[in-house]
Amino acid sequence: MRRSFHLVLPTALLVAAAATNVPITVGARADPPNQQWIGSWATAPQYSGATGVSTFRNQSLRLIVHTSVGGRRVRIKLSNIYGDQPLHIGSARVARRAREAEIVPATDRKLTFDGLASATIAARSAILSDPVDLEVPALSDLSVSLFLPEPTTATTLHTLALQTNYVSAETGDVTSDVKFPVAKTMASWPFLTGVDVMASSKGGSIVAFGSSTTDGDGSTKDANRRWPDALAERLQKAGGTRAELGVLNLGIIGNRLLFDIHSPGQKGGPFGEVLDRLGPRLGDAGLARFDQDVLAQPGVKYVILALGINDILFPGAFIPATEQVSAERLIAGHRQLVARAHKKGIRAIGTTIPPFEGAVFEQPVINFSTPEKEQVRQEVNAWIRSSHEFDGIVDLDAVLRDPSHPARLLPSYDSGDHLHVVDAANVVQAAAISLELFR
């Protein structure tokens, strides 16, 4: 079902570049001169796994997303990258959200795909809608409604939406209903992976490329308090050309830089049952998904790299100790990402790895941290700070650690698992990113 990567440096670059060449169908209409498409919202597609997968039948979805940058034309991206069957979209609409599942009637727009009201997305492919005219404010909520007329399994989704989304009963196409008839809610984003807006040639996108700490684990649901959200707010407040930069959150919980998580059970690991449940949802390795999730984003000018923490934490806990990684291997992986970004003219910004002493996973309880893992973190952070190989750095370790105990998070920032942080700490992380990096 899913694409599998098990990357071994230094050949990972070639494997990843070849394997992430995902077909994307695009409408034929020409873009206006001196303007370009940039991302206002995006999320990383994940394989849904073998258990607890939602199946929709003659139902509509109303998916809520929060924009970063505004524009007057909009298009959406739908992904079937992990599907082994074609995905049929009976109809699709976009509108500004009023509240909960209700939309602003005057903003409702029907979406087409190469001029057609419906679309079939081939297995392991993605599609862009035709653009529509719609005033999209920065930092606003949009509703994307999809009608799924046939039995459809949500094999491609983003797991940690931290956003309430809505599903109708099996009563047909209600995508145009102002007051959406909600039969149930869900906290994932099936199929929807991008919302783009038309911007001036001065605009661009910033991709936040990371794991759960970027994805927002620990932050408040339905509040848009992940650190990329807080960065988008800072850019809008700054005004000028910086307010024309979109911020795209391509974080995935549990994601690693160097390796995928394999299932079933990652043989040899003491917590195989947990991996059977979570493993496929933790995403392809950062090196494997970089082309799809970063380089392929419209108008991308900057990438903020925030991967590596799970490469250090997981061996000997979720996965066999034989997958323990050295600082040298993590450094080599970062160098590959920087080189690939630079080849496309994208500025690469590095971030230090925050402290994780006492980090735990519950049900069952897994203790992640050891003195040896802390040493690897320190060595990687020392290189990030001193190598001058990035176009800029953000010292997240420095702003999140407890000054009296630097190997652990400041208690007031700790969400409770000694790894993820609360909303206030996400604001602090965003404030640590100098806006001078985006010039």
Summarize this structure briefly.
With 439 residues, the protein is α+β, with helices and mostly antiparallel strands. Helix content is 21%, strand content 29%.
Q: Averaging pLDDT over every residue, what do you get?
A: 90
Characterize the biggest β-sheet.
7 strands, antiparallel
Q: What is the CATH top level name of the largest domain? A: Alpha Beta
Low-confidence spans: pLDDT under 50, at least 5 residues?
A: 1-20, 263-269
What structural category arises from helix and sheet content? Answer: alpha+beta
| CA-CA gap between termini | 42 Å
Number of domains: 2
Second CATH tier, the architecture of the largest domain = 3-Layer(aba) Sandwich
The count of strands amounts to 29
Q: What's the quaternary structure here?
A: single chain
Question: Can you tell me the CATH superfamily of the largest domain?
Answer: SGNH hydrolase
- Helical content class: 10-25%
| Contiguous helical run count | 10
Q: How much of the polypeptide forms β-strand, as a percent range?
A: 25-35%
